[in-house]
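Quick start: read one record
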Amino acid sequence: MTTTTTPRTTTAPRGRALARMTATEARMMLRDPSVAFFSVVFPALLLVVLGVAMPWADEPYDTSDPLLARITAITGYTPIVLSLAIATVALSTFPATVATYRQRGVLRRLSTTPVGPGRLLVAQVLVNLGALLLAAALAVTAGLVVLDIAAPTQPLLLLGVFVLAVVAVFAMGALVAALAPTAAAANGWGMILYFGSLFFAGVWLPMPVMPEVVQQIATYLPLGAASQAMTAVWVGQPFPTTQVLVLAGWTLLATPVAAKLFRWS
């Protein structure tokens, strides 16, 4: 008599492994006060300081656009602060953390287990996504309560765009995390991307006053597209189709490339 055996599914064990890894990464983040501060508290603090100290905070954000003219400059700067928060974690903290694991041999030891690079990168993204969602909530709440910024006209859509922006910018940071041999290298490579991205996100110079060609370039870069898309849904402009597609494209292209290029040592 023959018997048939049903192959055991590995979905549940893989899910549990990802959950355990995510919980471990979360504990590691909480043990570092500086990482927790810059990931969660700094965006709200920066927004409040700018809103209180800067003389331009109560001026119209952009008098050439009817919708943007109705909001204050600090309201228009709030999506930019959210973009800055994403970049700080995705292009600075995240690559340096993974590279530190590589430098200390943690990744080499993990390479002998069933844990794959994709699962490690996903765990990092999940932990930092949670931190950034909390940071965004604190920043927006502080802006509404302390600075009297205009509330977003489409809050749920704003949340969706924010999450997509996090994933897209992390996909770019994952390329650095996949290859940087040391924490110092990750910091160096990440800072180049970081400061360049901040420029195209409008941190150094507000987007409306940038030359048209710079605004067009920014549309096709992850952080620039994120800043533009969040501003559009905040003030009620037409749905930012191009920017959302750009964010999705960066996510779908860069993530598998990072997993493919990932180095354990």
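The chain has one domain: 15-261.
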